Recover the amino acids of this structure.
């Protein structure tokens, strides 16, 4: 069976040690974590954790069940597919030699991202989008020389009924 | 009511009906022990914290109640880890209180400080660090609720010293509710009906029952179900006693050291009704060929047990007892007609497997360990509570002692913890003072928690230890014999204490048998003494446990001698 990428979002009790229960479950059971985001929600007692994982379908089922079994996990939803919007943010520090500056700014424009720091030899670009957009941008910038990248990991929200 | 944290803890323990606490004191829990002495709760002082947890575990398994421990911080806490992991693997309800350094010192590497909540996160059902006296009562309530509900398990509460000393206005908490925790007790009726249809159609069915039956108190329902549907029953190691071992429908234990007929039936059957099991690797052998012709119905209260190792035709999440009662009703309504007639060929096949390849050993001049277990069975009329250590002793106990009732076989099934049997026997004896409790031990395992003999002597607990003494770490030796060309590396433990003298040194009674003719006499004498007794049986050194399925092989490919 082929591995599939799944985005899972859970509401958890906002208490010390809860993130470690979730991440410990993944490491202890040998599940894979591609990315993980967490922050409090509107309710300060509740946090939202979003995890992107890669596994075959039976293992995905097992991961979901194991997460639901954690006492501090209040609600869990698989956000994979078009029913949820997913965004990731990245900060990309790219080499900006004079001969490349115009080209970089054109790419920034096409991808609707922002230059948030400028130096003699570099730009830092802020970009938000789905994984495909980020990958495409990175591929275009790579020839100029990417110095550093910081990516946030995926966030997801279910779409409300229209 | 203005009470200190320690007093609040005692109030909640009383509300929870706690009668016994197994523990070992230390600096940060002196207050708790001091308050404990003012209650009617029985305090059992062990000699090592691991023993406290195993004893609470044995107490829980024998009584069906929640076992409770109280130990100190740091080393006291870390010593409980093996016991907690043992209970976690076998789903035993425990509440373990560990002391902790005062809250303002946490994280400072204070004396006897350890992050026990961090350490036990993966081997507890849930755990807590109590951060204020205000939350203490609620946490204890939640812990007991979590430990015994759903799929039971150990819960740890880490209690900083200042929490026990601070005063708080206490009002009893009536009800515990956790918004994120709602075990499914009632099974889906549609799924149950589908299961009944499969049972009706099946010509070669098998019931596979596990520890879940015992935990949910469903042994009577299971027996009714099996007899009504005329389906033979095999059990896992944890399920021994869930169905009467002497019943004609019993196939005995399945798995690596299961009976020939149980494993062959599983290989040939067209339906497995599995209840309260988790398809452990010691049961399934090679999973892709396990029960390859069978449809599988799987009933368990824990959704993660279902489809974890084995694909399942009809998954049913629910309590074993509730599900079996409902199944019995549905079967009565549906009517099965001449079900016995339909299964005739199947029973003839099973009978052939049974009669051609029964459990057997060769009687020789030396004492055979199997013979000792058989004699124990005979002389206790099968009524004793048997605890075991881990290894060959455990397998022989499982094979040659027949269990007709639940809660009478107490063994570390999942984790396989050597040193479990003696402290577990102590706990079981406290839970059932009128029962005969025997630890069937090996000479290796018994040395892992032998210090608890002092606990048994101090508490006047007449537990019996039957050591099947082959002066080897026998199970590993057996693997070395079969798969490592008889290279017995680090398994010869001939340099051992004289167990008779050792028993006497503890203030217990020691007996020894070196010849087969002495076995019966030693057992009779040992059982007649109302004190802790160690019976040292010098058995055949190189006897092995058969049948055996090599690790990773299909369970139908068994080594028989």
């Amino acid at each position: 069976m082929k591995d599939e990428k799944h985005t899972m979002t859970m509401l958890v009790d906002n208490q010390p040690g809860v993130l470690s229960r979730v991440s410990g479950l993944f490491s202890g059971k040998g599940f894979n974590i591609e990315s993980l985001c967490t922050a409090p929600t509107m309710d300060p007692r509740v946090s939202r954790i979003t995890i992107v994982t890669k596994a075959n379908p039976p293992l995905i089922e097992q991961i979901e069940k194991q997460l639901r079994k954690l006492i501090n996990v209040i609600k869990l939803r698989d956000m994979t597919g078009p029913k949820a919007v997913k965004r990731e943010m990245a900060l990309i520090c790219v080499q900006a030699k004079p001969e490349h500056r115009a080209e970089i700014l054109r790419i920034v424009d096409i991808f609707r991202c922002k230059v948030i720091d400028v130096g003699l030899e570099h730009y830092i670009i802020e970009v938000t989008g789905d994984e495909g957009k980020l990958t495409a941008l990175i591929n275009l910038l790579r020839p100029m020389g990417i110095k550093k990248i910081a990516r946030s990991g995926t966030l997801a929200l279910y779409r409300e009924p229209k | 009511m203005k009470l200190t944290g320690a007093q609040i803890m005692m109030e909640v323990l009383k509300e929870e009906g706690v009668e016994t606490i197994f523990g070992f004191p230390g600096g940060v829990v002196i207050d708790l022990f001091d308050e404990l002495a003012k209650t009617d709760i029985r305090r059992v002082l062990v000699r090592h914290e691991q023993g406290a947890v195993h004893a609470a575990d044995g107490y829980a398994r024998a009584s069906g109640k929640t076992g409770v421990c109280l130990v100190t911080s740091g080393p006291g806490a870390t010593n409980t880890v093996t016991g907690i992991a043992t209970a976690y693997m076998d789903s035993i309800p425990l509440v373990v209180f560990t002391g902790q350094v005062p809250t303002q010192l946490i994280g400072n590497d204070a004396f006897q400080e350890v992050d026990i909540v961090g350490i036990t996160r993966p081997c507890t059902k849930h755990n807590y660090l109590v951060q204020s006296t205000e939350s203490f009562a609620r946490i204890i309530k939640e812990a007991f609720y979590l430990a015994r509900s759903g799929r039971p398990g150990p819960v740890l509460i880490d209690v900083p010293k200042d929490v026990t000393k601070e005063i708080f206005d206490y009002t009893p908490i009536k009800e515990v509710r956790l918004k994120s925790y709602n075990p499914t007790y009632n099974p889906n009726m549609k799924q149950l009906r589908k299961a009944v249809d499969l049972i009706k159609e099946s010509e070669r069915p098998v019931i596979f029952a596990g520890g879940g039956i015992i935990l949910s108190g469903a042994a009577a329902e299971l027996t009714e179900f099996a007899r009504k549907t005329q389906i033979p029953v095999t059990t896992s190691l944890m399920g021994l006693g869930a169905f009467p071992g002497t019943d004609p429908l019993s196939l005995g234990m399945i798995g690596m050291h299961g009976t020939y007929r149980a494993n062959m039936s599983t290989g040939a059957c067209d339906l497995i009704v599995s209840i309260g099991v988790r398809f452990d690797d010691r049961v399934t052998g090679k999973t892709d060929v396990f029960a390859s012709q069978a449809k599988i119905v799987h009933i368990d209260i824990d959704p993660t047990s279902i489809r974890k190792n084995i694909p399942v035709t009809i998954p049913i999440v629910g309590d074993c007892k509730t599900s079996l009662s409902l199944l019995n009703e549905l079967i009565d309504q549906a009517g099965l007609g001449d079900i016995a007639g339909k299964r005739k060929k199947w029973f003839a096949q099973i009978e052939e497997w049974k009669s051609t390849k029964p459990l057997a050993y060769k009687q020789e001049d030396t004492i055979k360990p199997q013979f000792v277990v058989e004699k124990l069975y005979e002389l206790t009329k099968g009524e004793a509570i048997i605890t075991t250590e881990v290894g060959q002793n455990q397998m022989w106990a499982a094979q040659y002692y027949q269990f007709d009732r639940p809660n009478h076989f107490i063994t570390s099934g999942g984790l396989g913890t050597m040193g479990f049997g003696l402290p577990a026997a102590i706990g079981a004896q406290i839970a059932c003072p009128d029962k005969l409790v025997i630890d069937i031990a090996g000479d290796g395992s018994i040395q892992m928690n032998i210090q608890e003999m002092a606990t048994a002597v101090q508490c006047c607990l007449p537990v019996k230890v039957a050591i099947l003494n082959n002066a080897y770490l026998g199970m590993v030796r057996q693997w070395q014999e079969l798969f490592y060309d008889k290279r017995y590396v680090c398994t010869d433990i001939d340099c051992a204490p004289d167990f008779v003298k050792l028993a006497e040194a503890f203030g217990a009674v020691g007996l020894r048998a070196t010849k087969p003719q002495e076995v019966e006499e030693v057992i009779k004498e040992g059982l007649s003494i109302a004190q802790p007794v160690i019976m040292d049986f010098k058995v055949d050194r190189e006897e092995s446990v058969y049948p055996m399925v090599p690790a990773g092989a299909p369970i139908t490919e068994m080594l028989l001698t």
